[in-house]
TrEMBL record:
Its EC number is 3.1.-.-. The lineage of its organism: Bacteria, Pseudomonadati, Pseudomonadota, Alphaproteobacteria, Maricaulales. The keyword Transmembrane helix does not apply. InterPro entries: AB_hydrolase_fold, Dienelactn_hydro, Dienelactone_hydrolase-like. Gene3D superfamilies: alpha/beta hydrolase (3.40.50.1820). It comes from the Bacteria. Coiled coil: none annotated. Pfam families: DLH. This is Dienelactone hydrolase family protein. Transmembrane segments: none annotated. GO terms for molecular function: hydrolase activity.
Amino acid sequence: MSAETLTIKTADGSFSAYARGRGPAIIVIQEIFGINQVMRDICDDLAASGYRAICPDLFWRIEPGIELTDKTDAEWKQAFDLFGKFDPDKGIEDIAATIAHAHGEGAAKVGAVGYCLGGLLAYLTACRTDCDASVGYYGVGIQDRIGEGGKITKPLLLHIAGKDQFVPPEAQKMILDGLKANPKVEMHLYPERDHAFARVGGAHFHREDAEMANNRTMAFLEKHLG
């Protein structure tokens, strides 16, 4: 099944999305680098596992078509600049529009998987949308919105890196303490891992823990979207 470029319409305008595969839909939520090869590879892997993977361009309001890597200082600077300009509330509106698009294509169930910035957005997707199951990897800033956790009524899985340079121990404690009473929330801590430990080719990639997290994710998605 070849890749597609979708056009998703909102009240504020239209944006593109990378899509691949057929089956229950999963919205793949980008890191701060845009829809790059890492995100496309995740979509392709999900498609190979029997899902319809859709990765929306969430930076379109700032600059459409951003595609960066984590390999140069200049790209990191640009990525952090985009992160600073990005409005998560508008991002969730765009994710909700993507979920609606997936339903419009015929998907009975829709899940979400997000990384870094996308990890925060996966959490907010669980709080604010009708997404059937959401997964967040090392989300940045969840502790600042922990008060919304009471709105989660559908399954959420969070992978937390114990030595995340962007999520200090006190923030991790706020997340764990703030969500542990919600039976819809499942959390796993990877004590020795740094941020982006599941990003293939990244500086902190750890194969064994990435495989553990990804296996947990696939089992979670199969349970709730299958």
